[in-house]
Please model this.
Amino acid sequence: MHILLHVDLDAFYASVEEREHPEHKGKPVVVGADPKGGAGRGVVATCNYPARKYGIHSGMPISIAYRKCPNCVFLPVNMELYVAVSGKVMEIVRQHAEKLEQVSVDEAYLDVSRLKGYEKARELGQQIKDEIKQKEKLTCSVGIGPNKLIAKVASDFKKPDGLTVVTPDKVLDFLAPQSIRVLRGVGPKTELALNNYGIKTVADLRKLSREQLTAIAGSFGPELYEQSRGNYPSELITEWTPKSMGRNYTFEHDTKDKNEILRVFDEMCQDVWKQLKAEKMRFKTVTIRVRYEDFDTHTKQKSLIDYVDNIEAIRNTAKELLEGFLKDQRKIRLIGVSMHQLKGET
Ligand code: DCP
Ligand code: CA
Ligand code: CA
Model:
């Protein structure tokens, strides 16, 4: 019998900023692009819970966030700081299990099957929460369940500062009333496709057969069928930590100025490289992204012969990929660079 525990920090970037700036305590805080009095471009990375009361959320254009709450505290993204804090939190979490899978900068799964019971697992969950609060002054939400899906949905269930335990006998009831969006791999497109058949909750989904789901969602159908019944893997992927590491940048004004583009691009490459170094990772594939003024967006990638971690490899490969896009007539709105096929330096 597997018991999985999922930890996810609450309003991560914003909580770190609040901790570093006690003067903002209790105020709504938004972390992301500079709002420039409502004229700013780029998006919200995240915001704290008081700011969420205004309807602000991750990924929202910063100009809209500003319109919703001009008096919120707006802060820039300080990635180096968050990566450092993330490392400390993960170190605390790691002490409590022999197996850990870190899935992003602020969340991880632990396999706590050795505890052989959900009461013991709950106690451990509380202990981890207390320790992170005491040592790092941050709150997190913890979910515990028989597999990764249930643990993750459980940690999301009560936020912030939640602790939710779903024992195997409660899995079906727990999932039933929830939105289909809680299932892994169900994004806005699949949600809409299913909504068109009147399917909104996980319970609705269970009314369809495997064949019907395949007709609607293709090869993802059978997996939806299983997930809606709470069936999902429990195995952790421990060698490869994050899947990618990258940066995007939205220009102040759409531009064709090659020097400006290359300067920003170079800075982003260095930023990613610093994060790679901080996390002791190497990479094999470089991907770039270009969005033109009309939002037409392209990605292009190249894989190297072996895993590397030097700045020149990033810079040269990324520039080579970018070259063709600079010849276009259109101005560029956004550029991005990311590393894939990451591997720890072991
Ligand atoms: N993030 C981002 N852009 C997004 C989503 C997230 O830059 N579109 C960053 C900022 C978040 C961090 O990743 O602080 C973790 O993302 P989560 O989805 O876990 O969201 P939060 O931790 O901010 O909030 P929650 O309390 O809902 O977990
Ligand atoms: Ca989080
Ligand atoms: Ca998260």
Notes: Residues 16 and 81 are 8 Å apart (CA to CA). The longest helix spans residues 258-278. Residues 8-13, 45-46, 58-59, 105-106, 159-160 surround 2'-deoxycytidine-5'-triphosphate (ligand 1) (CB under 6 Å).
